[in-house]
Structure formats: structure tokens, C-alpha cells
Amino acid sequence: MTTTAYERAQRIGQHAVRTAILDQAITLLTREGHAALTVRRIATEAGCSTKVIYTLFGGKDKLVEALWREGFARFQRVLEDVRPGSGPIEDVLALAAAYRAYAHAEPYYYRIMFENVIPEFSPGEGAGREAKRAFHLLEAACAAAVAVGELAGDPREIADQMFMAMHGAVSLELSGFFDRDHADALFPALCAGLLRSFAGPPEAAG
Question: Tens of pLDDT along 91-145?
Fold first, then answer.
């Protein structure tokens, strides 16, 4: 007998149930678009009652916000998994590469996070603050590069410009303006070039 995603998750625990429902919702969104995201359809896809969804999420609006939060939570874990490199500049570039890798690994979560694929959704203030935490890692890496003189300027300004460059490049790539192989070469060159514009003063000759 075939078991549903909900039944399989029940054996693990409530967190697994919540994740299974979000996974079914993102699959439905990917396959049929935002109009298909109703509580009844999500419940049908997950193999649970609508009551389960209302109990866990409080309704469609909160479930959509949970998708948005889940996207940023996964994104933050990807950035946190980036291991320190040979220096601060390399760390910033590694975070940039992780940003792009996440967008490819979780394209629909990425679009929920950044591209308004659910037009009626607007994140609450608390959710917005949570979302920005992941970008503190990029700002911290920029601050480390400024601290050792590899970059010069305000770390937040550097991080914000990096984010704008990364997001623009990745969004164009996901939209099909650049193929994957071409973007493999363009993206690191773009990020490195932007950082060079913030390069610190050259070391004085000894």
C-alpha cells in the first residue's frame, strides 16, 4: 500500500510533517503556479486533512509566509556551510558562489524569496528581519576584509553592492538570458571585479 508524504513524515515527528507539507506546496507551485496554492490542494497533495494545515500554519497566508521563511532558512544554512578560505577576499567570493549555487539548487524557493511569484504575499515585519540575518554573513566577511586592509570602505555598502550584483546576475541566468556554462565564467569575474573597485591601498614597499 502506498503511503502519503504526510504519513511518512508522521513517523518522524511534527517538524518532518511541517517540512513535508512545505515540500508538497513548493512542488505544486513549481508544477502549476501560484493559483494552485489553496489549502485544499496542498492537503490533497500531501495526503492530509485541511485541518492539519490550519493547525500547523493557520491558513494559506501563513503557509506561504512559512515557505518564504523556509527559503531563507535553507539559504542561511548554505552560507553557514561555507568554510573559511585562504583570506577574507576569498571568503567573500565563496559566499557569492554559495548564493548562486543555492539559487540553482532551490530555484522556486529563490523565486519566492526574491521575485514575487506569489503576488498577494507580503512578508510580515518579523519575517523580514529574519530574512536579513543570512546577509549578515556576507557583511561580516566584507568587514573582515576591510579590517585587514584588503578592502576599503563601509562593509555594509560593499555587501549591499555585492548582493545587488549577485542577485542581478543570478536572476538573469535563471530567466534564461545566460546559459549555465557562460554564467560559470561571468559570475566569478563580476564578483571579483566589483571587489577590486573597493580594493584597499597597496602595501608600501619595504
Answer: 999 999 999 999 999 998 998 888 878 888 777 777 677 778 888 999 999 999 9
Match 548582493 to its residue by C-alpha cell: 163
- DSSP letter assigned to residue 206: -
The cell numbers describing 1, all together, are 500500500
Domains of the chain plus CATH, in order, are 1-58 (1.10.10.60), 59-206 (1.10.357.10)
Distance CA 34, CA 32 (A): 7
Task: Give the integer Cα–Cα distance in Å for 56 and 41.
Answer: 16
pTM to 2 decimals?
Answer: 0.84
Q: Is the distance from CB of 146 to CB of 134 less than 8 angstroms?
A: no
